[in-house]
Task: structure prediction
Amino acid sequence: SSQDRVPHRHHVVQYVHLYRDAAKADIMQLIMYLLGFFNEFRRPDRDSQVMVHYENIAPEYRGFFDITNDTTFFNYPFDFESITFFFPYAWAIDPSKPTLTPKYESVSIPYKVSLSKYDILNIQREYKCGIDNGNKIDLLDGTVSYCNFEFDLCEWTQLTDDDFDFQRMKGPSPRSNVTGPMADYSSGTGYYVYAGAQGEHNEDARVISPVLNAGEYCLRFYYFLYGQDIHKFRVNTRVGDRDTVLDSLEGNQGGSWHTYSKDITMNTKFQIFLEAIIGGTDNGDMAFDDVYIFRGRCIA
Result:
């Protein structure tokens, strides 16, 4: 495994196989392994920062999470932004439960497509690279809006032209043993936005973004649709009093979080609103978390 190499170890051949649809972040993570760096959550001090749920990791993958006493971490702060950090549900036996959770409230494991500040410093120090960062490109520099709902809805607001309101929820939802989430997406201990089906049959809930200027954007979030009577979760735009449905996510998606991303190009000011339309029974809960709006096209 390329995860078990050390920088400057000579005469070692390493093979990495890339799938055609491999995401850029995954490729960058593999390059870090090839350079000899370990995952950030494997550093010796990790137990003070993050909890690893070995009981939810298949035995053959537990080695990916073990602590290493490697010296390449130096003495930099623990870095949740590192490109080497797995997403919270990586290698989960039960995909409704995380394998990694931060130990401190309001700390999350964010979406990332660029090397972090400390990833770069580690490479520069170990390989004695120059310290010029003039050619560094931050692929997330165009972030227009981001909300993980840890404290409130941020710039998103509940609409009044719907039937009921979404709820901010922490931990297992009221129906987590049936159709609701067990935890949020980005930390496993934080908040998400929830639309429970119980008592809200054939009704809808909506939240809307701030006004965005004309241009090209990427919308990205994580969603949870579980139950045999899931109706629709819609992504819409609003220009004045004209609404347009961009996507309609329908049907039972299973008891785990999924990624949604969409390129949106508009020639006038507009808003985005997310809408949960409940089915005719209690058997269908919906939730979303970690909503990003980037300027420009989506990055895989």
In short: The chain has two domains: 2-127, 143-295.
